[in-house]
Amino acid sequence: EINLQDAFNQFRKRKMQSIKQVQQNVVPKLRSTEQKSELRKQFLDQVHSHIGIPYARCNHPSNSDLFNSPYELDCCALVRIAICKMQDQLGFKFGLWNQAYMFDTLPIRYDTYDQLKPGDLIFYQGEYT
């Protein structure tokens, strides 16, 4: 009998193989440093455009604007919506997956914080409560 973790690992393996096939069959679009910087700026502009949308409505008083907001965005949803709105500029479509999927499929890793640039995503291990 397969458990949830084994099923996820099989799914992840198939997805990574699929990504590898796509990467082998597609000529990467090389961008200049300036183009990459502009994309980072656009990403940050997209993220900043959502300032004022609550992380979770339930954390606010029931008579507040934040509690009554039609939307709420956690960190994963914020990244997804920004990337989704930029899919034409970025040249790819980002699926509706969670941060574990983002971590597993985003290819660039840095060893130290001093290598980070504005717009980089930081993933860390935590415990869901």
Automatic annotation (TrEMBL):
SUPFAM superfamilies linked: Cysteine proteinases (SSF54001)
Q: Which residues form a coiled coil?
A: none
- Matching InterPro entries: Papain-like_cys_pep_sf
Organism superkingdom: Eukaryota
Tell me the PANTHER family matching this sequence.
CHROMOSOME UNDETERMINED SCAFFOLD_14, WHOLE GENOME SHOTGUN SEQUENCE, NLPC_P60 DOMAIN-CONTAINING PROTEIN
Q: What is the name listed in the Swiss-Prot or TrEMBL entry for this protein?
A: Peptidoglycan endopeptidase
User: What organism is listed for this UniProt entry?
Assistant: Trepomonas sp. PC1
